[in-house]
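Page 47, continued from p. 46.
Same chain as before, 155 aa.
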Amino acid sequence: VDTACMKSNANEVYPRGYLAVGKVDPDYTENMKKLLEAKIHATGYMLPCFKCGNPRMQAEALMKATPIEKRRFFIHVLAGFWGPDKAANRKFLHELKCAFLSKDNAAGIVTNAFHWSYVMGADCSEFSDLMLFYIDFDNNPKCYDFVPFGGWNRP
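Result:
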């Protein structure tokens, strides 16, 4: 991690902490330590391994690898990385959320309307109490194309 470059170009950094193959990113802990030493605010994110099961264990592994307590962790909800059963996906996400919150951390969601609808269902709004990190692939930082979904009314 080039912390000098990041410090001059970013207010916050989102290092990948958990891989979709069911393990903590091997560079995550060291990257977090470097960012914290450089006084750069860092929030870890995970791409959970749905097929691996045990969401609580996955969240706990990520929290254990994070060198500071009481953080926010973002959970990626992307088509292709979850199961085909929306009810099972919701249960899995609920267990991840509960695991993070039980340790005085905060949880957030990284997704957009397409991915949310595909993975959780267009009618799912039970996670709208979590912060949304809206992903938008058009390279326009203004999010002009945002439409409310999942109970979120703004990016």
